[in-house]
Amino acid sequence: MKENREIVAPYLFSFEVTSALWQKARRHLLSMEEAREAIRRVLALGVRLLHPTDISLVAFDLAHRLGRPATYDTHYLALAEILDIEFWTADERLYNAVREYFPRIRWLGDYDNSAPP
Question: What are phi and psi of 28, to 5 degrees?
């Protein structure tokens, strides 16, 4: 039996989800109601949003160290570093760009749901 794991993210997670779904609705890839329902579903997943005091400084330093053009993604990396946990992402470009330098990163495409814990 698989152990239950808590999913955590920085506060900006809800902003990024909302923004991404707004863009899809704006481009008519989703209806406004479909986008609103998707937001409701994501928020209902129970992702615990965290904002450790030093997350922005750690994200800033990671962006510099990893040569990232923005700090949005490095806030997720910073949270993983602060909590000493793995960071799973569906962003294959981010994964490929930092995996050599950030060993905590995992790509969802490699996740095997059938494997024992």
Answer: 65, 30
Nearest partner of 72 among 80, 81, 60, 64, judged by Cα? 60
pTM: 0.84
Same domain, yes or no: 60 and 107: yes
The range of the structural domain enclosing residue 63 comes to: 52-111
Please report the beta strands in 2-104, taking only residues with DSSP state E, as ranges in sequence order.
8-10, 48-50, 87-89
Q: What is the dihedral of CA 98, 11, 72, 93, to 10 degrees?
A: 40
pLDDT in tens, 88-108: 999 999 999 999 999 999 998
Domain count, the chain: 2
Q: Is residue 59 part of a domain?
A: yes
Q: Tokens 């962006």 identify what position?
A: 63
**Both tokens of residue 62?**
């990671």
User: Is 98 found in the same domain as 59?
Assistant: yes
